[in-house]
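Work Package 3 (structural annotation) set out to generate three-dimensional models for the target panel prioritized at the project kickoff. During this period the team completed the workflow that converts sequence records into discrete structure tokens, so that structures can be stored uniformly alongside our sequence database. As a representative example, we reproduce one entry of 270 residues exactly as it appears in the project archive.
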Amino acid sequence: MHTSRFAASVLLMLVTTATDIAWSHDPVFGLGPHVLFKDGVEIAPELNQASAGNNEVNELGVELTYGLTGDWSAGLVIPYVDKTIAGTSANGQGDLRLFTKYRFWRLDGPGVQQSASVALKIKTDTGNNAVSTGTTDTLLGLTYGYEGRKWYRWAAVRYLDNGKNSTGLKRGSKMFFDLVGGIRPTQSSYLEPDTVWLLELNGEFSQRNELNGIELASTGGKEWFISPGIFWTLRNFAVKAGVQIPIASDLNGTQTKTDYRARLVLEWHL
């Protein structure tokens, strides 16, 4: 009797450990509840591209994350930006971003882990003047995730409060809504390559910009995106990629609609 209980305890421990190491994923564009293990380090070069008419922004960055505890991670993103807006090109060091995430709830079951986290990200006013927004912006997020051996699902809501720059311009605050589903067609072990296909629905609701307290007409509005993506892992290395395709928009005034956004991330856990 005692032997069977001991074996069951060991099995549960192994399943839980495998869930943390091999099954912990986050969406490509949305927010997920995943955090690093205690004293873990993640190095993640990433490439982001966005196009809207004649406007294009390319960002190459490196994200560094550290596991403060098994439920709390923190890190920073160091970006380099190259953009063309209204025919004018600029490039340089982008604004440094600091972030933290705390997992406040977790429930493990046979082959399944559910969890929920809160997140905070601060974009500092530290970049090259040619590409910096000149503001300090704060993003707050709440996210839930269900991760199984075959099926995944996530939901998240985020609120972005943009600061005011030296000219009196304040970009409108934003709300983000994310619903994501994922499937692992072929179940694999930790030592084998693993592929999860993702499909995201991302919504953005933006308030109008203000200049010295006066709202600007051709700013703000709503956009919805459908975003197919992939998460491919091999042991402690992962490739995450996806593209956001606009499916509906209601922008104020004469704004240029988004053509697409794309993201590629390489993750290495130490």
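Helices lie at 2-22.
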